[in-house]
Design brief:
Structural class: mainly alpha
Number of domains: 2
CATH architecture of the largest domain: Up-down Bundle
Strand content: under 5%
Number of helices: 18
Radius of gyration: 21 Å
CATH topology of the largest domain: Growth Hormone, Chain: A
Number of strands: 3
Shape: globular
CATH class of the largest domain: Mainly Alpha
Length: 430
């Protein structure tokens, strides 16, 4: 028995569509807010967290709802068929909104409708994938999501120069295509486990808290802490590059881009590694790797971090005006960090969904998003205050982030469940 890579790549188109939307949204909505509507920077920062706030309150209960839903189309597909077209239409109107209330209406509709179908499309992966192959399948899906982000930033950047409307229209078209691919090529299971009462999100959390083995809670809190740590780097890296390394913001963004690039390249291998040595061990290796990378970024002098290693087109940075693009010591560390992050991020969702039965996959996918989304709200605020209280010392994020990673590591050391669940033969079930 092997993973059906063809079907998994087709399912990945759903995550591809979501990633294109958020890539374009995060890149260009702040520009509209600043240049078209002259909104203050502090308010822009709050506005850009609204997607996480919407997701926090919508995605977990929608996941539980999708577990209980029974339709001829299945449990998850109806959410995609309703949510994706609304998202596409609202998203396409964002750049054309000439007045702020209409702009807010378009962005709010996009945020709410996208939150409606993200959990169901992700829950489809464990629905159609045996436990043994879920890490590999999640690697494929995250690879597709990474490709979507790259398309949004690279192609979207070129299209924006032609017209600010074009990246958003591209996103709308790709979301519709992604939804159609999932609808036509992914067949949901039509038989579900019956008989058990379907508890909601908070009831499921209470169940975890009352279990003698706290593996479920340990994994969820580990997810929260490592995302808080990662968000410190992701949110403030361009400012770190400008203020600590002395780079311009554009080169800082280019320097950081090697981390998500190698996350994408290592997404599928990290799932294969977990299939060999186990998810928990793979995540622990990733957390140790990330912690060491961040500590090295903290203690290494800025001049050493900008030491040229080798020429690197596209994602290298010029060390002198008009010079060739080079891979630097900082770039090497970020490449290793991207590989470590793949080991962590790819294998966490499969661990969560393998804590439960097939009947509650959507609920536990919602729990995953509850903790990861809450961290995306808490992380930038905690780290922003830390920078401010240390007199705008942006290097502080490179010592704060590994602290959170090590807390997550200590939690993962006590985890005893979440590995591959062996399928029970039909004769044994009978």
């Amino acid at each position: 028995m092997r993973l059906n890579y063809g079907k998994t790549f087709l399912l990945g188109f759903g995550f591809f569509g979501v990633s294109v939307i958020w890539g374009v949204y995060n890149a260009f909505v702040p520009i509209f807010l600043s240049e078209k509507f002259h909104i203050a920077t502090g308010i822009i920062g709050f506005f850009m967290t609204l997607d996480n706030i919407a997701a926090l309150f919508i995605q977990p209960p929608v996941g539980a709802w999708s577990d209980r839903l029974r339709t001829p189309l299945g449990r998850r597909i109806p959410f995609i068929l309703i949510g994706a077209p609304i998202t596409a239409v609202a998203f396409g109107f964002i750049p054309m909104a000439a007045i702020l209330p209409l702009f807010v209406a378009c962005t709010s509709t996009t945020l709410l409708s996208a939150a409606l179908w993200r959990t169901p499309v992700v829950a489809l992966m464990p629905d159609i994938t045996p436990s043994k192959f879920r890490s590999q399948a999640n690697g494929v899906i995250n690879f597709m999501g990474g490709v979507g982000t790259i398309v949004a930033l690279q192609t979207g950047g070129m299209l924006y120069k032609m017209s600010p409307n074009f990246p958003f229209w591209l996103g709308s078209v790709l979301v519709i295509l992604a939804a159609l691919v999932v609808y036509f090529f992914i067949e949901e299971p039509k038989e579900y486990e019956q008989g058990e009462k379907q508890p909601g999100i908070f009831e499921s959390l209470r169940e975890m808290a009352n279990e003698e083995d706290k593996s479920g809670l340990r994994i969820l809190f580990a997810i929260f802490f490592w995302f808080v740590g990662f968000s410190a780097v992701e949110t403030f890296f361009t400012l770190y590059a400008k203020n600590h390394l002395g780079l311009n913001p554009g080169d800082g963004a280019t320097l950081l881009s090697v981390l998500p690039l190698f996350f994408v390249l290592f997404a599928i291998p990290s799932g294969l590694i977990a299939g060999r040595i186990g998810r928990r061990i793979t995540i622990i290796i990733g957390l140790v790797t990330l912690s060491l990378v961040l500590l090295l970024l903290y203690i290494t002098p800025a001049t050493a971090l900008l030491t040229a290693i080798a020429p690197l087109p596209l994602v290298g940075i010029p060390l002198v005006e008009g010079g060739a693009r080079m891979l630097t010591m900082a770039g090497v560390l970020l490449i290793i960090g991207g590989i470590g992050w793949a080991c962590v991020n790819i294998n966490s969702l499969p661990m969560i969904v393998d804590l439960t039965s097939a009947a509650r996959v959507g609920t536990f996918t919602g729990l995953y998003y509850l903790f990861s989304t809450f961290s995306a709200i808490v992380g930038p605020n905690v780290n922003g205050w830390a920078i401010q209280l240390t007199g705008n010392n942006y290097n502080i994020i490179m010592i704060i982030a590994p602290v959170f990673m090590l807390i997550a590591l200590s939690l993962m050391l006590g985890v005893k469940r979440g590995e591959v669940v062996q399928a029970v033969p039909a004769t044994a079930q009978a």
